[in-house]
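Following up on my earlier thread - several people asked me to post the actual chain instead of describing it. Fair enough. Here it is, all 494 residues.
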Amino acid sequence: MKFLRINPADNVAVALTSLSKDEKLAVGAEEITLLSDVPAGHKFALSVIPEKADVIKYGYPIGHALRVISQGEWVNEKTIRTNLSGLQDYEYSPQIVSSAIPNRKLTFKGYRRANGEVGIRNEIWLIPTVGCVNGIINKLAKQLEQETQLKGIDAVVAYPHNYGCSQLGEDHENTRKILRDMVQHPNAGGVLVVGLGCENNQVSAFRNMLGDIHDSRIKFMESQKVSDEEATGMQLLREIYEVVSNDVREDIPLSELKVGLKCGGSDGFSGITANPLLGLFSDFLIAQGGSTVLTEVPEMFGAETILMNRCASREMFNKTVHLINDFKEYFMRSGQPVYENPSPGNKAGGISTLEEKSLGCTQKSGTSPVRDVLLYGDRIKIKGLSLLSAPGNDLVAATALASAGCQLILFTTGRGTPFGTYIPTLKVSTNSLLYNLKPGWIDFNAGTIVENETAEQANERLINYIIRIASGERVNNEKKNFREITIFKTGVTL
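Reply from S.P.:
Thanks for posting it. Predicted structure:
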């Protein structure tokens, strides 16, 4: 198969392999002659598209023609433009799909924490209240790793960041929320919180924010109050290690799994292979009683009504409307257009407008009802599908998903990225070329869906792989120790 017409209503098709000028293609009973070369993942017109007429892909408009587009012409960002503008009014038209997926009673090997939550890793984390102590935590983490050789634990990781001081209002609270969520994350068997002493994010106030904690697993050090922060830090870490290293995995039902859904460096195959595959997995996991979280709000623009009509109640619909419009207003307050997307890499991969990107991105959420809408820094409260307020930026969005309580992230990509956040960040390639080119980045290949495998077969392969990951098998970002956090910032720095 050389090309794909995704929906019968589409007036464009996607090249599944590079196509040549003058090549003749049979589309139903009609033969189309290509007017130019069309790269793999890119679109070509199935019929004449008049100037200002909608370009249809996935059965929805992805923009309008800037001029007359001839049949067989390569369709890209030079020939079409977004239909998006500012705020919109929305109507709730429920379209809830009932799941027929059986509960297979599957399990994985995880860590049941004292508060009932479940981790898929047993790591020791060093978290600074302020960026001034980043050097200290990095040194302590290396020393503990060398001393213990990681016996009985999965990793020792320091998570430096730039914040915790010189911030005001919402930015300051966002920093505190993300750090709180990290300290309480079940993938951490133990945490050493390191402060300086004079920062805005005071250690004592931050500790109160955490509520009830296990003093044997979560400890604090205020560097200005000790004579030797390295000696004191190591003593505290040794005490944590003595507890954490005795933790053991046990059988955990798949209903306890919480998975973040993310994409980055999308291409023309994203909405055909990897993103729909994540949608199948999301529906499967939810049918098992588990949870998934979709974020990247700006990459819902143009496809938001699909999510709104899947809201389980009018209350959820209203929250989703606020989620979308609040983010649009954030753009507008900064004097920026809401549609300044896709990226150069997206365009090179075959994505021409934000609507096209969004219609592919939202497929990661499958067809399940939207059960909850989370603000930035909130944690998952209800099982099923949740929407989370965060931008499309890979580092910020992935950190937010982890902080919502997800134990791992499924990250689809058509261009590739080595990035990983503070939980396993499993990369799913949209095409086999990328998978074969970057085996040190990509963990799972969805490109086979347009080659020799059905989506259902790929999903079964993904289910089995995720169970292995949840049971301790490491993904590439963990193997390479590519782990970091990035906190959302909107305001001034003092």
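Residues 3-81 form a domain with the Archaeosine Trna-guanine Transglycosylase; Chain: A, domain 4 fold (CATH 2.30.130.110). That should answer part of your original question.
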